[in-house]
Design a protein that fits this description.
The complex is a heterodimer of chains A (662) and B (394). Chain A has 662 residues and is α/β, with parallel strands linked by helices. Chain A is 52% helix and 7% strand. In chain A, α5 crosses α6 (104-110), α7 packs antiparallel against α8 and α9 crosses α10. Chain B has 2 domains: 94-198, Up-down Bundle (Four Helix Bundle (Hemerythrin (Met), subunit A)), CATH 1.20.120; 202-343 and 357-391, 3-Layer(aba) Sandwich (Rossmann fold), CATH 3.40.50. Chain B has helices at residues 6-18, 23-26, 47-56, 61-88, 97-105, 112-126, 132-149, 154-168, 178-207, 224-235, 252-262, 275-278, 304-313, 382-393; strands at 215-220, 240-245, 267-270, 284-287, 291-292, 298-301, 318-321, 362-365, 372-375, 378-380. Chain B has a 7-stranded mixed sheet, with helices on both faces. Chain B has a 3-stranded antiparallel sheet with strand order 5-6-8. In chain B, a hairpin with a 2-residue loop joins β9 and β10 (378-380). Classes of the chains: A alpha/beta (662), B alpha/beta (394). Chains A and B meet through α9, β11 and α28 of A and α1, α9 and α14 of B.
């Protein structure tokens, strides 16, 4: 409503540029058009789907050719290119100019001297293969842009085209020639570079040079190492180097459409940048070298479980209960670790502190203690040294138990506070400011947030409702207690699962205050769901695509509820939101004690699988978390209100920064 | 669903011995009445629909009697409300928001929310407050009394809330002296009223790209925005035809078809139950909205949900035209999770007293059945609504 958003009214018109009536035809043509020049060399390219990123072809010989490439001699060989043209191209070459000037996408292809330069230096088939590669590449992006546009249905195209006609006469005239023509234009795209090449701009020439330089470097790299694998990587490098100037090229005067920028985002950045940009990768525990290295550093000596499920080898799994006595004995020897941190770590290890919020609060309080007892060593600055210390603490805690997302966010907050401390503060002031920051984080992001969530969630409980909850979530428990306190009449179904039976604690509390409860196991969820009117779930984290990451079994409950058309409400504090995207529960998860699922507590005699634990062909999988797809979730209740799953990125965007600033 | 299950019946039997909290729920009596209505349950009419009926002039005899009775009550209530505020108010003020609001509301082209916004703007104008805080409190009180005047109208509540946000948002106001701050406030209020007033035009412009020659549009309910959209399309010499549902019980469709016939647009009237029958001829569905909720779904006249369902199953696009002052921070989970707006239904024959009548006037259409929303903020997908709301309210 304020001026900023008022101006956005024009947005839809801008988006209209994306309406391109040629989508279907291009798609249809892509197969046959590329095949003739390629078929004799690489039949595999024919089968490439337009959606796939083309893999580097002929790794060994293409690379060895690249090695032989002389750096110069680009232009003289150019005139060869028309030989690849079909006879009918020449007639349409004039319009192609118009097209390429209109559509930046096509101009990218049409004026790609770096590509053709390299291709020409090799023999003819290599070139055709390479340029064909580029055709595929661009085309793939081109088709990818159509979902981007706002087209409500196929028919809309005509309206959009009309719009364009009024705006841009050239385009309109081109359009009238009909589908066959436009498709043809696409076919000959590689040949387009010929008429354009004569007037290569300064930028283009520079890009060319750079490409050559990159090729040289690659050649050098490949020359040093003759093994096949190396040459493959070299090829990849040249591939990338070639793409880089290409990118730079279209940064030029041509106004880049949304599609182009989209494409650029999707393209792989050069190796160096990638390393810089990407967050530090999580430890992959199937990588033996790194595991060994990490072990040397670690304080906690964990023995790894021997028999792990193949799909989850990248997650740490330890023999449970072996390291506790050892650590306890070391309690007084551990110099670098603050006792409060040590204590919290041990509690994590032993499983005394569970639940996202509890773990996070305990960790923050331990940090607060540690900061209080901290003194900056001489000749060091507080900011640097304390950050290093905190890193130490964190790596110790990770060794005890992998961090939850909420803890990660809290640590990020603390670190940013430390980094932003003004230098003018004295040590005591800095420490007290940090402690009060931590205090405030706990208060605002957890305690008060929970209260606000309860206020919101209670409005969704009406008299006569039957609520279902899974496991034991602190927030959901508060919601139920509060609703009961308000005198609402409702029943609760508590669904629980082995091996932890966390729901029993909740059941005990609810029964004690007189809430009518039903307790059942997850096996019966499809039966009990028909009488349920609301499902309340807790969450360990919510990801940007709306995926809820929670105690294992939650996804199952949510799915059943969805199937029964029962609304699913997820209660989650906003500090647990994460900007990452999670698609499955394999990539990031935690493994629990594998023995726990085969044992029945208190009944040592029921242990039929016990002697099988060390067998080769039996593996236990005790997953801790799972990912619930956003489709199954009706709403997420946060302290910012009740939001749909699609608004998680909005919260992350709007409050992610403030989150660090409070 | 749930009350049929075995375990519930068992619980029921146990409970019967002790107390009967749930048995009351089992017999589905009328849902709890909203604030605006008096305890007497007979008329059961939402003020929102009274207003609409008054504007549209489609009134049955039975309905008129009830509406008049209700309006009488309403007036009484407004007076009592006013006298109450007089008692509690610190200074005796001759000015009443409700009167002002009713004045504005008399213009049929003016939406309820815009009338409320104008009324609130005049509150600022006539205020005798001396400090910013006082003024804000006064404004708050006025908007509260407006909101409680008709709790069933979503756009009224949302419009008031948005106005409050828009007017009092910046802290820059605090640093100026009171008079200039007040004039600044007034300026903004006027501007906001202006924007809201123009919203319909903007929407009409935006939606033109979606109406193409030769298309068939299904319209449900009488929405002034949709009418504006269609009128603009007709003026732009687009060739299209309209299917218009009858819109029982207040026959909104008849009125809309009247208007469209005046524009020389070919119209076909359907009875409400013929929607699925004629859906395969339809190219797009156009509806207005009483309110747009956080999930991106809409609350609209009864029947919208089923039309959207049919359209979805035949994969026809459903477009919603709604001004941004209808965006409300509500999140209904299902049809019953709303403040019900009730409306009498004239069946033409006497209904036996044992027979219950569903008098709810509107339903909730979840976002997955909507294709796009045309608002004055732009053409939005349903998921953007929440984005906008978060930015507006937080």
């Amino acid at each position: 409503m304020d001026p900023r958003r008022y101006s956005r009214v024009i947005d839809p018109k801008v988006r209209q540029v994306g309406f391109c009536p040629r989508s279907g035809q291009v798609q249809n043509q892509s197969g046959p058009s590329t095949s003739p020049p390629v078929s004799d060399i690489s039949p595999s390219s024919n089968s490439l789907s337009p959606v796939m990123i083309p893999p580097p072809r002929h790794p060994s010989d293409a690379a060895s050719r690249a090695v032989n490439v002389p750096a110069a001699a680009t232009t003289p060989l150019r005139p060869r290119r028309p030989s690849f043209d079909d006879p009918n191209n020449n007639s349409s070459s004039t319009e192609q100019l118009v097209v390429s000037s209109y559509n930046p996408d096509e101009s990218v292809l049409g004026t790609s001297p770096p590509f053709s330069g390299i291709g020409d230096d090799r023999d003819g088939d290599a070139e055709s293969e390479f340029s064909d590669n580029s055709v595929n590449w661009i085309r793939q992006n081109d088709s990818g842009r159509f979902p981007l546009s706002l087209a409500p249905d196929g028919r809309f195209d005509s309206a959009a085209a009309k719009e364009k006609q009024s705006k841009k006469p050239q385009v309109g005239s081109r359009k009238e020639r009909g589908g066959g023509q436009t498709a043809e234009v696409r076919n000959d795209l590689p040949s387009e570079s010929k008429p354009l090449k004569e007037k290569t701009s300064k930028a283009a020439r520079r890009a060319l040079q750079e490409a050559q330089r990159a090729v040289k470097a690659a050649a050098k790299a490949a020359g040093g190492n003759k093994s096949k694998a190396a040459s493959l990587s070299a090829h990849e490098q040249t591939d990338k180097a070639v793409k880089l100037p290409l990118q730079r090229k279209d940064d030029g005067p041509v106004t880049s459409s949304a599609a182009v920028s989209e494409r650029r985002g999707g393209e792989r950045p050069p190796e160096k940048d990638r390393k810089k940009d990407a967050p530090a990768p999580r430890m992959q525990f199937d990588d033996k070298n790194r595991v060994e290295k990490a072990k040397k550093r670690s304080v906690v000596k964990q023995t790894e479980a021997r028999n792990r499920v193949e799909l989850f080898r990248h997650l740490p799994q330890y023999e449970h209960g072996t390291q506790l006595p050892d650590l306890e004995s070391k309690f007084f020897q551990l110099d670098p670790m603050h006792p409060s941190i040590y204590k919290v770590g041990l509690q994590y290890l032993a499983g005394d502190i569970r639940g996202g919020n509890a773990r996070c609060v305990a960790m923050l309080q331990a940090f607060s203690e540690a900061i209080k007892d901290y003194y900056t060593p001489p000749e060091k600055t507080l900011t640097r040294d304390l950050t290093a210390k905190v890193n130490n603490f964190v790596s110790f805690l990770i060794e005890c138990r992998p961090l939850s997302i909420s803890m990660g966010n809290a640590i990020r907050f603390l670190k940013s506070r430390i980094a932003k401390l003004p230098i003018t503060l004295s040590e005591a002031e800095a420490k007290s400011s940090l402690c009060s920051d931590i205090e405030r984080f706990i208060n605002e992001k957890i305690v008060i947030a929970e209260k606000v969530i309860v206020e919101h969630a209670v409005t969704k409980i009406q008299d006569g409702d039957v609520l279902l909850t899974y496991g034991s979530s602190a927030v959901v428990e508060m919601v139920i207690l509060h609703a009961h306190k308000l005198g609402k009449q409702f029943r609760v179904v508590i669904v629980d699962s082995r091996p932890r039976f966390e729901g029993q604690a909740l059941l005990r509390k609810l029964v004690k205050i007189g809430v009518s409860c039903t307790y059942t196991h997850i096996n019966a969820v499809s039966y009990i769901m028909r009488e349920v009117t609301r499902v309340f779930l807790g969450a360990a984290s919510v990801f940007s695509n709306g995926t809820v990451y929670s105690r294992v079994g939650t996804a199952c409950v949510a799915m059943v509820a969805h199937a029964f058309h029962v609304p699913v409400l997820v209660c989650c504090e906003a500090y647990k939101f994460h900007e990452r995207v999670l698609l499955d529960s394999i990539c990031s998860n935690e493994l629990g004690d594998p023995d726990a699922i085969s044992k029945v507590p208190g009944r040592m005699d029921i242990n039929s699988l016990h002697d099988g634990t060390n067998k080769e062909n039996l593996q236990h999988l005790n997953l801790m978390y799972d990912a619930t797809p956003p489709d199954y979730i009706s709403m997420i209740v946060t302290e910012y209100g009740m939001i749909p799953t699609t608004s998680v990125p909005v919260i992350v965007r709007e409050y992610g920064r403030e989150h660090l600033l409070i | 669903m749930w009350y049929r299950s075995a375990s519930f019946i068992l619980d029921q039997q146990q409970n019967d011995g002790v107390a009967k909290p749930e048995s009351r729920l089992l017999s589905p009596t009328a849902p709890p009445l909203s604030m605006a209505e008096t305890p007497q349950q007979i008329p059961k009419i939402s003020a929102y629909y009274q207003t609409r009926a008054a504007h549209h002039g489609v009134v049955t005899s039975d309905w008129l009697a009830q509406a008049q009775a209700a309006v009488g009550r309403q007036a009484d209530e407004a007076v009592s409300d006013d006298s109450l505020s007089l008692k509690s108010g610190e200074s005796p003020k001759a000015f009443s928001v409700i009167d002002e609001f009713n004045n504005w509301r008399k213009q049929p082209e003016l939406a309820e929310a815009v009338a409320a916004i104008r009324a609130l703007a005049s509150v600022i104008r006539s205020s005798e407050a001396n400090t910013m805080m006082e003024l804000e409190i006064e404004l708050k009180k006025a908007s509260d009394s407006l909101k409680s005047w008709d709790t069933t109208s979503i756009s009224l509540t949302a419009g008031c809330d948005l106005f409050m946000r828009y007017v009092t948002r910046t802290s820059a106001l605090e640093y100026e002296d009171f008079n200039s701050a007040k004039s600044r406030l007034l300026e903004r209020a006027e501007k906001f009223g202006e924007i809201s007033y123009k919203a319909r035009r903007i929407i009409a412009m935006l939606s033109q790209d979606f109406i193409f020659d030769g298309c068939t549009i299904l319209v449900h309910g009488f929405s002034r925005v949709v009418l504006e959209v269609l009128r603009t399309a007709a003026q732009n010499r687009k060739l299209f035809r309209i299917f218009c549902t009858e819109g029982r019980p207040d026959r909104t469709g008849l009125r809309l078809s009247n208007e469209l016939a005046k524009l020389d647009v070919p119209v076909k009237l359907l009875i409400d139950s013929a929607v699925a029958y004629s859906m395969d001829e339809v190219d797009m569905v156009f509806v207005g909205a009483d309110g747009v909720v956080e999930s991106g779904g809409i609350i609209n006249m009864m029947g919208t949900y089923q039309i959207a369902l049919v359209a979805k199953s035949m994969s026809k696009p459903v477009y919603v035209a709604a001004e941004s002052y209808k965006f409300a921070r509500l999140y209904p989970l299902d049809q019953k999770d709303m403040v019900p707006a009730l409306r009498p239904i004239d069946f033409g024959v006497p209904i036996p007293s044992k027979v219950e009548v569903e008098t709810s006037a509107r339903d909730y259409t979840p976002p997955q059945y909507l294709t796009l929303l045309f608002t004055d903020l732009g053409v939005l997908t349903p998921s953007v609504v929440s984005d906008e709301l978060i930015q507006l309210y937080l």
